[in-house]
Design a protein that fits this description.
single chain; 118 residues; four-stranded antiparallel sheet
């Protein structure tokens, strides 16, 4: 069974940093691209970032470019999102998701809440 477990959220002050993790199991992690998606309170889903299976290629939404860094450790079956220079508008539930063979996000974690507030 494919499982993705997001963690690392919490209350962070504006300008602060946080590292989110996503522990994967039930599939060959190193074979799949992975993504992060977020949902702010009362808003729809927003794609944040993606990384290819080997970790050598990454892309970001314009809203987080230069502040967020996606990475992965295939030996540990773990995906990361380093989020820096946090703003109030980054407050959201952050989800990791697997990019499936069919071209869409086919498995999701349950999400981890990041709240940016002083």
């Amino acid at each position: 069974e494919v499982q993705l477990v997001d963690s690392g959220g919490g209350l962070v002050q504006p300008g602060g940093s946080q590292r989110l993790s996503c522990a994967a199991s039930g599939f060959t992690f190193s074979n799949y691209a992975m993504t992060w998606v977020r949902q702010a309170p009362g808003k729809g889903l927003e794609w944040v970032s993606a990384i290819n299976s080997g970790g050598g290629s990454t892309i970001y939404a314009d809203s987080v470019q230069g502040r967020f860094t996606i990475s992965r450790d295939n030996a540990k079956n773990t995906l990361y999102l380093q989020i820096d220079s946090l703003k109030a508008e980054d407050t959201a539930v952050y989800y990791c998701a697997r990019w499936g063979d069919g071209g869409g996000m086919d498995h999701w974690g349950k999400g981890t809440l990041v709240t940016v507030s002083s």
